[in-house]
Amino acid sequence: MSQKKVLLIDSISTNRDFKTKEEATIASGQLLFENGYIEKDYIDSMLEKLDTQLFATFIGNGVAIPHGMSSGSIHVLHTGISVIQVPEGVSWGEEAAYIIVGIAANSDEHMNVLAALADAIEDEDDAKKLWQETSVENIFNLLSQSL
Predict the structure, then answer these.
(1) What confidence tens digit (pLDDT) does each residue in 32-60 have?
(2) Are strands 63-64 and 95-104 parallel, antiparallel or unpaired?
(3) 7, 13, 15, 28: which has the highest count of C-beta atoms within 10 A?
């Protein structure tokens, strides 16, 4: 079986607007579903994580990382991420999220994805570049360097 890339250009969406973190989470899950990373049921697991462990879905610098419960990993087909840019931000607990990175991973594979993602956004200026970048191709290129 061939290895699917963690990030596909079709898994990136820019200039989006959401009223709630739940809408943003569903949209990030939908991109994962449409690109063959997950079964649709994984989105319910992402919403459960958001509801029960909100703290685990925001990593700072305006970046949220909705992902499923460990029990939801049975619905993950391939490890991958979706990226949604929200220029106006969406309320995420006490913070605002401008970049939503949906994560689908089997077992502990998500730790590698999180480590690469942290490298890409650990500097606030780097994170802000993603907030403001309107080109899907440029976001893809920026994140692909780390993944």
Answers:
(1) 999 999 999 999 999 999 999 999 999 88
(2) parallel
(3) 28
Largest CA distance in the chain: 43
Return the SS3 of 37. Answer: coil
What tokens does 12 get?
């990136």
Is residue 84 left, alpha or beta, with left meaning phi > 0 and alpha meaning psi from -120 to 50?
beta
Report the number of secondary-structure helices (H) and strands (E) in the chain: 5, 5
Residue 25 has pLDDT above 80, yes or no: yes
**Residue 1 scores a pLDDT above 50:** no
Residue 77: DSSP 8-state: S
How many whole angstroms separate alpha carbon 146 and alpha carbon 51?
Answer: 29
Q: Annotated active-site positions, please?
A: 67
Report whether pLDDT(95) > 90. yes
CA distance 50 to 34: 21
Amino acid at 133: E
> Looking at residues 120-135, what average pLDDT do you find?
83
